[in-house]
C-alpha cells in the first residue's frame, strides 16, 4: 500500500479504515489537474460595441460571401468527397443549418488527417484559386455608396475639417502622400482630404510614430485606398470589423490564416469563435458578461437575414429555420466542428503536442456527433502519435526547460499579414532621437559616456538585417560606471505556499512592487480613514491593491515614504500601474505557478503547476497592455499599438532578425488564452478591438522573450558564490502524502517554485550587445543595496573612445542553440562557440540560458587591485553608494556594518566619483525615464512638437 498502513482484518473496520484513508490521504489522481490555466471571472469589465446595424450586417455578409463562394467553387470542382452525406435522418435534421461554415468545414474534412505543411501552403492556395481572388474596393463602395461608421476623419490624430494644428503645409504633405492634387486654400485642402479619407478603408490603424521621426504620417499597408483590391483576408477582416460578434467571420478568417500557414493566427481567431459559440451553447457562460449573449444572437440572425434576396422577396430555408424554437442555435454545431478542427490541426502544425491532444478531445467529449463528424477526430487521433514522433526530435525534447515543456514552435520567417515593415532602427533620424532620449536627455542617467550606433558585423548577414550597439563616446576607465536603468516593465510573481507549511522561507517576505526591496512582514493596520484615503488614490504609500487581501487576491505592498520626492507607490501609479490597479489578479498568478486544492479535512495540497504552460511572460504582458491603454488616452493617440510603445519599439523586431532557424515557443495558454483574458480584465473588447489582434500579441511576446531579464535570489548572490537556482527540465509535484511529509519535516517546497520569480524589461540595457565571457569589456549587475531591481553597467577594462561596449549575458560561451534562443541570431563575438552536436545530452545546462541575461554579477574588481577574486563588484558599488548615503541620512546599523565590511575592498573613492554617486542618487530619485510619459513632461517634447 502506498500509505504503508496495514488495514484491520475485520471487514467492517477495514471498510471504515479505507474510507478514512481515502478521505484523508487523497491519492494523486483524485483531483485532476485542469487542462488549462484558470480563467478570470469577469462581469462588468467590458463595454461591448453596439448591436450591428442591418446595413452593416448586409455589407458584412457580402464581404463574407465573395471569398466563401470561391471556396465553394473549388469544392465543387473536386470530383470526390471522402465524407459524402448519407441520405438519412441525421442529414435531414441538419439540413439548412450548416450555412455558416459549410465550405470551411467540408474543406477541412478533405484534409483532416495531417496539418498543412508550411512549405506547401502557397501551392495549395494557388490550387484553390485564392491567390487570384481579389475584389475591387471601388465596386464594393459603389454598391454601398459610403463608408459605414460615420464620424470625424482624423489625420495625425486631429479632426481634418476643423483642427488648427493641421496647417496648410501639413495638409499638402498629406495629400501628396496620397497622390492627390495639393493646390488650393486650406478649406479646399481639408475637404479634399476628408472626401478621400471617407472613401478609404482603414483595416488596421497605425501608431503615430512621428515622435520617433519614423515615416511621419505615411499610410502603411493596412489602408485600402480607392482603386485598391481586397484579398480574402481583407474581406474577412472587414466583415469582422462591421460585425465582431458573429463567430462565422472569425471561423472563416481562421481558415484563411490556416491555409496561409499562419497557424498561431488561425488559433487566435478560432479561439475567439469558440468563446462566442460557448456563450450561445453553454448556459454557464451565458449570463456572465452582461450584453454579450444578445449581441452574438443578434449578429448571427442579422447575417442570416442578410441572405434574403430583397428583389424576389423569397424567404430562404435558413430564415425559416431561424424562426423555429432553437433559432440561432441550430447553426452553431457546424461552426464548432469547423473551429475545433482548425485549432487541432494548427496545434499539430506547431507541434504543440500536449495542447493538441487536449483540444482533440474537447468537442467529442462535449457533443454527441453523427459518425461523419466524429470520425475525423478519431482517425486523426490514430495517426497523430505517429505524426508527432516523426516531426519530433528526441534530443530536442530532452533539452527543453520545464517552463517550455509543452510548447510548440512558431517559425518566424514571414511577416504577419498586417505587420508593417517600414520601421528601420538604423535610420539616422531614429538613431538621433534614440540617443537624445536614452543618453543625452535622460535625467535618470548622470553619465554621458556612450551612444547607440548601427553595427554591421552580425552574422549571418542578410541584406535587410539591422542591428544596433552601444559605443563609448569618451575613454572610459576600468571600473567607471557607464549606464544605469530601472525596469520599464515588471513581472513580480507571488509564490504560493501551503497554509500549513512552517518552513522558514524568504520567498514569503513581502517585497515592494516597485523596487522589489524586502519589506517588514508586519503590514500596518488599515483603519477606516486610511481605507478612504487609499480608495480616493490619495495615500502616497499604497494603492487600492493593498485592500485586496480579503478576496484571496494578491495584495501589493510598497515602501513606506522615505526621503525621496516620490514614494514607490506614487511612481508605480504614475508610470505603469493603471487599469490593473485594484483588480483581482490571482488567476493570472495561478496561471504561472503551482496550484493547490483544499481537501476534506481542511488540509491543502498542490495538485499541479501551470508553469509548464509557458506562461512566464504573462505579468510582463499585462504591463505592456496596461501602459498601452494608458498612453492611448493620455496622449490622445488612439491608434497606438502595443508592440510600438517606446519601450518595445526600440528593441529588435522581425526585420532585425537574421536567422531562419529561430523559432518561438507557442502554447494555447501562454500565447492565446491568457493574453485575451488579461485584455478583457483590462476592459478591452477582444472581438471589437482589432488593435490587440493575435499578431500584435505575438510580436509583443517575442520582444519580451528575447529581452526579459530574470532577477536572481538576492541572498544567494549577496552572500555566496553559489550558482543561481537552476532552470530545470523537469518538475514533479509530489503526491499529497509526500507533501504532508515535507510539511511535517519542515522541508521547503522551493523545488516546485516557478523558475522565475521576477522578470524585468530594461529597454536601454537590451541595446548593449552580447560577447561571450572574456570577450566582453563591461560588466553588469543589480544594485542590490539600494534599489534591488536597478541595473548598473560598468567598465571591466579601459574602453577607448569609439569602441563598442559589450556585456556578457551568460557565464560561459554560448552554444549555437543557446545563441538562437537568447539572441534570436548567432553570436557575433570571436570566442569559440560550441557546435550543437558536441553537446552531451546529459551535460549540465548552461546556467540561466534563457531568458537571456544571467542575473549573476561577474567577479571583477572595479578598482586596480591585483587580486581579481575580491568580491563581486555590484556588491562593492552598492556598498560604496551606501556608505555615502549613510553619512547623509543615517542608515540602519545592519546595513552600515555591511558597508563597513566591504569598504576595504574598494579604493578610496575619488571626489569626482563620490560626486557621481550622489548625482546618481539624486537622478534616480526623480526617475525621469526616457519613455513617453516621463520624458514628455520635461517640456522638451512639447517644445519640439510645437516649435515647427
Ligand atoms: Zn520600493
Ligand atoms: Zn494598485
Ligand atoms: Zn559569443
TrEMBL record:
Organism domain of life: Eukaryota
SMART domains, per database record: SAP (SM00513)
The protein's name: Histone-lysine N-methyltransferase SET5
Reaction catalyzed: L-lysyl-[histone] + S-adenosyl-L-methionine = N(6)-methyl-L-lysyl-[histone] + S-adenosyl-L-homocysteine + H(+)
Location of region: Disordered: 828-896
Alphabetical list of PANTHER family matching this protein: HISTONE-LYSINE N-TRIMETHYLTRANSFERASE SMYD5 (PTHR46402:SF2), SET AND MYND DOMAIN-CONTAINING PROTEIN 5 (PTHR46402)
Taxonomic source organism: Aspergillus thermomutatus
Keyword S-adenosyl-L-methionine: yes
Database matches in InterPro entries: SAP_dom (IPR003034), SET_dom (IPR001214), SET_dom_sf (IPR046341), TPR-like_helical_dom_sf (IPR011990)
Biased composition, class Polar residues, residue ranges: 861-873
Amino acid at each position: 500500500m502506498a500509505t504503508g498502513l496495514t488495514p484491520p482484518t475485520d471487514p467492517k473496520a477495514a471498510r471504515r479504515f479505507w474510507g478514512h484513508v481515502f478521505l484523508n490521504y487523497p491519492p494523486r489522481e483524485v483531483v485532476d489537474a485542469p487542462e488549462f490555466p484558470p480563467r478570470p471571472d469577469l462581469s462588468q469589465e467590458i463595454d461591448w460595441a453596439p448591436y450591428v446595424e442591418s446595413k452593416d450586417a448586409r455589407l458584412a455578409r457580402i464581404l463574407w460571401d465573395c471569398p466563401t463562394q470561391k471556396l465553394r467553387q473549388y469544392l465543387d470542382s473536386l470530383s470526390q468527397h471522402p465524407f459524402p452525406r448519407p441520405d438519412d435522418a441525421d442529414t435531414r435534421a441538419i439540413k439548412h443549418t450548416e450555412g455558416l461554415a459549410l465550405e470551411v468545414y467540408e474543406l477541412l474534412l478533405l484534409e483532416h488527417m495531417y496539418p498543412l505543411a508550411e512549405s506547401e501552403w502557397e501551392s495549395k492556395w494557388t490550387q484553390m484559386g485564392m491567390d487570384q481572388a481579389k475584389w475591387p474596393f471601388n465596386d464594393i463602395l459603389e454598391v454601398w455608396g459610403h463608408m459605414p461608421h460615420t464620424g470625424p476623419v482624423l489625420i495625425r490624430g486631429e479632426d481634418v475639417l476643423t483642427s488648427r494644428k493641421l496647417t496648410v503645409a501639413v495638409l499638402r504633405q498629406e495629400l501628396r502622400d496620397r497622390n492627390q492634387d495639393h493646390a488650393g486654400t486650406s478649406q479646399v485642402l481639408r475637404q479634399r482630404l476628408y472626401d478621400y479619407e471617407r472613401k478609404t478603408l482603414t483595416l488596421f490603424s497605425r501608431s503615430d510614430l512621428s515622435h520617433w521621426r519614423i515615416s511621419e504620417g505615411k499610410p502603411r499597408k493596412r489602408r485600402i485606398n480607392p482603386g485598391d483590391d481586397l484579398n480574402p483576408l481583407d474581406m474577412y477582416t472587414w466583415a469582422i470589423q462591421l460585425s465582431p460578434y458573429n463567430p462565422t467571420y472569425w471561423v472563416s478568417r481562421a481558415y484563411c490564416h490556416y491555409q496561409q500557414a499562419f497557424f498561431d493566427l488561425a488559433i487566435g481567431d478560432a479561439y475567439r469563435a469558440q468563446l462566442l459559440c460557448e456563450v450561445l451553447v453553454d448556459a454557464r457562460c451565458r449570463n456572465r458578461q452582461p450584453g454579450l449573449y444578445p449581441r452574438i444572437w443578434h449578429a448571427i440572425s442579422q447575417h442570416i437575414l442578410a441572405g434574403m434576396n430583397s428583389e424576389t422577396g423569397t424567404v430562404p430555408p435558413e430564415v425559416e429555420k431561424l424562426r423555429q424554437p432553437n433559432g440561432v442555435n441550430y447553426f452553431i454545431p457546424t461552426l464548432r466542428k469547423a473551429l475545433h478542427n482548425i485549432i487541432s490541426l494548427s496545434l499539430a502544425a506547431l507541434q504543440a503536442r500536449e495542447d493538441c491532444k487536449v483540444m482533440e478531445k474537447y468537442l467529442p467529449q462535449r457533443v454527441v456527433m453523427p459518425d461523419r463528424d466524429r470520425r475525423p477526430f478519431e482517425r486523426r487521433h490514430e495517426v497523430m502519435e505517429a505524426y508527432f514522433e516523426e516531426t519530433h526530435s528526441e534530443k530536442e525534447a530532452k533539452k527543453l526547460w520545464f517552463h517550455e515543456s509543452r510548447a510548440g514552435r512558431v517559425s518566424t520567417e514571414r511577416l504577419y499579414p498586417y505587420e508593417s515593415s517600414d520601421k528601420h532602427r538604423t535610420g539616422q533620424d531614429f538613431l538621433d532621437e534614440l540617443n537624445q532620449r536614452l543618453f543625452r536627455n535622460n535625467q535618470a542617467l548622470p553619465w554621458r559616456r556612450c551612444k547607440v550606433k548601427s553595427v554591421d558585423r552580425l552574422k549571418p548577414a542578410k541584406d535587410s538585417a539591422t542591428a544596433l550597439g552601444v559605443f563609448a563616446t569618451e575613454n572610459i576607465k576600468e571600473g567607471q560606471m557607464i549606464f544605469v536603468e530601472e525596469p520599464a516593465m515588471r513581472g513580480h510573481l507571488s509564490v504560493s505556499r501551503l497554509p500549513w507549511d512552517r518552513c522558514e522561507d524568504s520567498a514569503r517576505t513581502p517585497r515592494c512592487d516597485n523596487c522589489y526591496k524586502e519589506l517588514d512582514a508586519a503590514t500596518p493596520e488599515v483603519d477606516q480613514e486610511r481605507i478612504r484615503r487609499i480608495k480616493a488614490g490619495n495615500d502616497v504609500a499604497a494603492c487600492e491593491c493593498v485592500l485586496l487581501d480579503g478576496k484571496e487576491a494578491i495584495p501589493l505592498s510598497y515602501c513606506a515614504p522615505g526621503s525621496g520626492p516620490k514614494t514607490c507607490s506614487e511612481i508605480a501609479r504614475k508610470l505603469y500601474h493603471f487599469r490593473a490597479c485594484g483588480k483581482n489578479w490571482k488567476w493570472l498568478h495561478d496561471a504561472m505557478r503551482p496550484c493547490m486544492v483544499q481537501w476534506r479535512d481542511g488540509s491543502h495540497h498542490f495538485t499541479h503547476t501551470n508553469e509548464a504552460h509557458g506562461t512566464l511572460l504573462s505579468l510582463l504582458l499585462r504591463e505592456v497592455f496596461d501602459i498601452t491603454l494608458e498612453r492611448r488616452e493620455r496622449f490622445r493617440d488612439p491608434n497606438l499599438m502595443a508592440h510600438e510603445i517606446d519601450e518595445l519599439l526600440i528593441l529588435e523586431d522581425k526585420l532585425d532578425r537574421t536567422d531562419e532557424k529561430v523559432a518561438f515557443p507557442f502554447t494555447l495558454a501562454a500565447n492565446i488564452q491568457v493574453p485575451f483574458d488579461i485584455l478583457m480584465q483590462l476592459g478591452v473588447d477582444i472581438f471589437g478591438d482589432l488593435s490587440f489582434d493575435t499578431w500584435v500579441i505575438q510580436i509583443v511576446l517575442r520582444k519580451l522573450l528575447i529581452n526579459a531579464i530574470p532577477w536572481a535570489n538576492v541572498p544567494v548572490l549577496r552572500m555566496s558564490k553559489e550558482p543561481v537556482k537552476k532552470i530545470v527540465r523537469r518538475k514533479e509535484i509530489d503526491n499529497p502524502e509526500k507533501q504532508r511529509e515535507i510539511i511535517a519535516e519542515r522541508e521547503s517546497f522551493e523545488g516546485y517554485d516557478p523558475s522565475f520569480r521576477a522578470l524585468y524589461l530594461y529597454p536601454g540595457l537590451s541595446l548593449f550587445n552580447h560577447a561571450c565571457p572574456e570577450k566582453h569589456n563591461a560588466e553588469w549587475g543589480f544594485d542590490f543595496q539600494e534599489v534591488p531591481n536597478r541595473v548598473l553597467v560598468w567598465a571591466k577594462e579601459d574602453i577607448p573612445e569609439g569602441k563598442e561596449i559589450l556585456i556578457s549575458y551568460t557565464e560561459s560561451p554560448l552554444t549555437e542553440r543557446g545563441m538562437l534562443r537568447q539572441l534570436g541570431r548567432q553570436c557575433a563575438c570571436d570566442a569559440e562557440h560550441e557546435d550543437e552536436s558536441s553537446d552531451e545530452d546529459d551535460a549540465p545546462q548552461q546556467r540561466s540560458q534563457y531568458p537571456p541575461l544571467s542575473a549573476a554579477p561577474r567577479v571583477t574588481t572595479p578598482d586596480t587591485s591585483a587580486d581579481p577574486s575580491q568580491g563581486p563588484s555590484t556588491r562593492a558599488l552598492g556598498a560604496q553608494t551606501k556608505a555615502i548615503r549613510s553619512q547623509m541620512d543615517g542608515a540602519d546599523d545592519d546595513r552600515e556594518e555591511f558597508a563597513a565590511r566591504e569598504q576595504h575592498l574598494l579604493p578610496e573613492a575619488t571626489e569626482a566619483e563620490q560626486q557621481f554617486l550622489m548625482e546618481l542618487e539624486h537622478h534616480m530619485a526623480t526617475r525621469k525615464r526616457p519613455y513617453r510619459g516621463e520624458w514628455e513632461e520635461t517640456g522638451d517634447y512639447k517644445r519640439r512638437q510645437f516649435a515647427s
